Amino acid sequence: MADRLLxxxxxxxxxxxHLDLMRTFQRAFFRAGVPLKHTEGFNPxxxxxxxxxxxxxxxxxxxxxxxxxxxxVSREEVPGxxxxxxxxxxxxxxxxxxxxxxxxxSYVNYIINMEYEEGRPQETETALKALLNRESLIVRxxxxxxxxxxxxxxxxPLIQSWNIQCQRDTMTLSAxxxxxxxxxxxxxxxxxxxxxYPELAPDFVTFHRREVLDADGKPFR
Length: 221
Hints:
single chain; alpha+beta; 8-stranded mixed β-sheet; two-stranded antiparallel ribbon; 4 helices; 10 strands; elongated
């Protein structure tokens, strides 16, 4: 049976790309003395994969890495050993057997924080609610498979639920979005808002992945 890590990626670690993050974990397993299964062949490398790779610049407290732990180290030891050799911002919370299939991972809870340097316009909350309450919200999405280089997607069916909280300088959207097949990148919501209401575009936006969920809305592990 495969094993999984639950880990956080915050602070400066947000800017580590997916490929660099894979290399970081490969080195960390070696430095921490945690034995794991390798691929076979002339040039074997650690057999690891990360579910739902995170976009560069996004933070998360619920990343999942899958690997196969070999005998010699218990699962309880793994989080502490790995965190001790990780760069700042990567913390391994737990190690556990992968009992559920990754295809059961259905939704992701994102926190989208929009900041306004000179104070949040009062119209922002009403505008965002109107946008998300539309029956359809078609946007263009980059696609390597499409001849035109992009495809059109309706965001509304990919948004399970949402909630908005506002303060003087910020508007925060908490949304449960489709995770895969197809998944929804929260950047598309920001882009749609700025396109529909350019006069209300925020000065700075951050994206944080708070939880991964199954079809029943419960944490996926």
